[in-house]
Amino acid sequence: MDLQQRINAFVKLGEFIGQFSREGFRKNDNVTTNALFFDGFKHQISLAHEHNAWFTKENIAFALEGWSNSLTNANLKKWLETYNLKDVSPKNVAIIMAGNIPLVGFHDFLSVLISGHQVIVKQSSNDKHLLPYLAKYLEHVEPEFKGKIIFIEDKLSQFDAVIATGSNNTARYFEHYFKGKPSIIRKNRNSVAILTGKESEVDLKALSEDIFRYYGLGCRSVSKLFVPKNYNFDGFFKGLYEWHPIINQHKYANNYDYNKAVYLMSEYELLENGFFMIKEDKSYGSPIATIFYEYYDSLETLKTLLAENEENIQCVVSKGVTTDSIAFGQTQRPQLSDYADNVDTIAFLTKI
């Protein structure tokens, strides 16, 4: 199977999942083998939500929209054009996936297969319905993928390299267990936003997407604000308000009530608007329904602080404050070349 064959298969997969959007699930009879797979995938989406209440139909559809937009012939070719994939010697690459947001491990899955390797997938129990079904579709439209995709639940064995995503605690286990194997091991990271007080209402509304999408459970979700001294949070809260229906999701509401009670009993100072809280805190990872904030004296000292803590930070969101800033509202719309932890997965896979 050459690279173009692999690209063609993922393009067909992109066309398939493009039928499942937030606007509705609309069957397109022109999609390859749709009669076999469309209704079954609708069922898998329902099962995914029943198994994990954080995986709402809207959030699953949002994730699928992103992948459908990425999996085009033009996007895949542009992404891969700078790599030499002709001399890749196929290896068995294991992926240990997180389960915090729908299809969070898909980029690793895509990277392994598109670069010409075989993949061994160990999924999180929180996200186990969607990817195996999409893998079956992939095998159906490109039979040469059969035998190159394996899902396991037991202990990993017979692999040549590994990509593992987990917490800071599990990372220590991974580093010990996979010692001697080529590996990418990812730890906890969070995303931050820098506000200057000059942001427009449109900017702050866009930022609300970075905060609330996937209930803030993603590493690309903004969990920390850096604001100037005497920052007025009125505009910030106004920008968030369109997300107020989120409090109707019972798991989110339970977290909101619990965390609010903890803060009040601990006599922490906080600001809240009935569905969301902000608290001054130097930590980067905030609980659900909460965002931490920290004051800065100058942007230059803030840049130094961010550089010193880069291992804790996935994305920096701002209006051009830093050279690597992501625009407001774009953290959950990564491009194919936006690698987790800034570690180039394809480059790694070409060298194993």
UniProtKB/TrEMBL annotation:
Protein's UniProt keywords contain NADP: yes
GO molecular function: acyl-CoA dehydrogenase activity
Keyword set, alphabetical order: NADP
This protein's record includes keyword Metal-binding: no
Domain of life: Bacteria
Single biological process term from Gene Ontology: bioluminescence
SUPFAM superfamilies recorded: ALDH-like
Protein name, as recorded: Acyl-CoA reductase LuxC
Annotated source species: Gelidibacter sediminis
